[in-house]
C-alpha cells in the first residue's frame, strides 16, 4: 500500500528518527486506517522484546490517587513509543519480591517500576544482579547506583519543622512510615536537624505508623495530646495521615491553626476541600511518573549513568 520496503515500514512504525517525518506520518496513517497492529508474540520471538513496561502497585497505593497519578505520568512518558504499560498488583500477604521474580524469570516485560524502596531493598538487589532494567520510586542504600525518582523528604521535613517552630510550636512530632523504608530515615534526619537548629523539642510517634488504620492514628493523637508535654506541631508525610492527626487534635480540644499546627505533603486538590487549617507542601506524583517512565526508557536503551531524579520541595507559606 505504501510501496516501501518491509524494513522501512518497521522503522516508520517504531518512529525511527532517522526516517523523514513525512514517511513516518504516511506509514502510521495507513496503519491506523487499516487497523494494523504488530503481533506481540511474533515480535517477542524476533527481537526478544515484549514492548511492555510493568508497574507494580499495592491496593493501598490507590488511596488519594497515588497510583492513578503515577500511571498518568508514566503513560505520558510512554506516549509516541512502542511501549505499553501493564499494572501488576502486589496483593496483601505476598512478599514484594514475588511479582518482580515472576516478571524477570518469565520475561514478561522489558522493564519494571515499583515504589516504597527500602534501605536495603531485596527487589533492587535482585534486579541489579540480574541486569534487568528497572526504576524505583525512592532510593536504597546499596553501594551500586541504580535508577530512581524521589522526593527530597529530608528537605521537606527540615523546612516543615522550621515552619512549625516559626509558628511558635514547642514540640513537633511525626507519624513515620514503616522503619524499613528509606525515606523514613530521611524524614527523621530533617526533623532532628531543624529542631536542633531552632531549639525546640521533637519526638517520633510510637505505636503507629503510616500503614496504621486512620482510626488508630487519630486515637493515638487524642491520647498523646491529653498528656503533659504533648506535641503542638505535627509534620505529616501524607494527606491521609494529616486528616487523622487533625481529627485527633480537634477531638482533644486543640484548635488547628491556633493552639496546634500541622504541615503536610499534598498531592491532590481533594485535601484542600476539607479546609483543615493545615499548611501544605506539594508533592507532584504525576511529574514523578513522567520521570520514572523517561528514566526506564533510557535504561532499556542501554544507558547506565545519571539515571535519577530528585524533586525538591517548594515552600510557599501564605504569610
UniProtKB/TrEMBL annotation:
SMART domains: HTH_LACI. Residues 1-47 form the HTH lacI-type domain. GO terms for molecular function: DNA-binding transcription factor activity; transcription cis-regulatory region binding. It comes from the Bacteria. Keywords: DNA-binding, Transcription, Transcription regulation. Pfam families: LacI, Peripla_BP_3. This is Substrate-binding domain-containing protein. It comes from Devosia sediminis.
Amino acid at each position: 500500500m505504501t510501496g516501501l520496503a518491509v524494513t522501512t515500514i518497521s522503522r516508520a512504525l517504531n518512529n525511527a528518527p532517522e526516517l523523514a517525518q513525512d514517511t513516518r506520518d504516511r506509514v502510521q496513517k495507513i496503519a491506523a486506517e487499516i487497523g494494523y497492529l504488530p503481533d506481540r508474540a511474533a515480535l517477542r520471538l524476533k527481537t526478544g522484546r515484549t514492548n511492555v513496561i510493568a508497574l507494580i502497585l499495592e491496593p493501598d497505593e490507590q488511596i488519594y490517587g497515588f497510583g492513578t497519578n503515577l500511571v498518568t505520568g508514566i503513560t505520558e512518558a510512554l506516549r509516541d513509543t512502542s511501549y505499553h504499560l501493564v499494572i501488576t498488583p502486589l496483593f496483601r500477604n505476598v512478599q514484594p519480591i514475588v511479582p518482580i521474580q515472576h516478571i524477570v524469570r518469565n520475561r514478561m516485560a522489558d522493564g519494571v517500576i515499583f515504589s516504597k524502596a527500602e534501605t536495603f531493598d531485596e527487589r533492587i538487589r535482585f534486579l541489579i544482579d540480574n541486569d534487568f532494567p528497572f526504576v524505583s520510586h525512592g532510593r536504597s542504600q546499596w553501594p551500586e547506583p541504580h535508577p530512581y525518582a524521589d522526593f527530597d523528604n529530608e528537605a521537606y521535613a527540615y523546612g516543615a519543622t522550621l515552619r512549625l517552630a516559626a509558628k511558635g510550636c514547642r514540640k513537633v512530632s511525626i507519624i513515620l512510615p514503616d522503619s524499613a523504608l528509606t525515606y523514613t530515615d530521611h524524614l527523621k534526619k530533617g526533623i532532628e536537624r531543624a529542631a536542633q537548629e531552632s531549639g525546640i523539642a521533637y519526638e517520633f510517634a510510637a505505636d503507629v505508623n503510616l500503614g496504621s488504620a486512620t482510626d488508630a492514628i487519630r486515637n493515638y493523637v487524642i491520647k498523646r495530646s491529653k498528656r503533659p508535654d504533648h506535641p503542638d506541631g505535627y509534620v505529616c508525610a501524607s494527606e491521609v495521615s494529616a486528616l487523622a492527626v487533625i481529627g485527633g487534635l480537634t477531638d482533644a480540644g486543640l484548635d488547628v491553626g491556633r493552639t496546634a499546627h500541622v504541615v503536610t505533603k499534598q498531592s491532590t486538590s481533594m485535601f484542600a476541600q476539607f479546609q483543615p487549617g493545615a499548611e501544605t507542601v506539594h508533592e507532584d506524583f504525576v511529574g514523578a511518573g513522567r520521570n520514572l517512565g523517561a528514566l526506564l526508557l533510557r535504561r532499556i536503551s542501554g544507558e547506565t549513568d545519571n539515571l535519577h531524579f530528585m524533586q525538591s520541595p517548594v515552600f510557599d507559606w501564605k504569610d
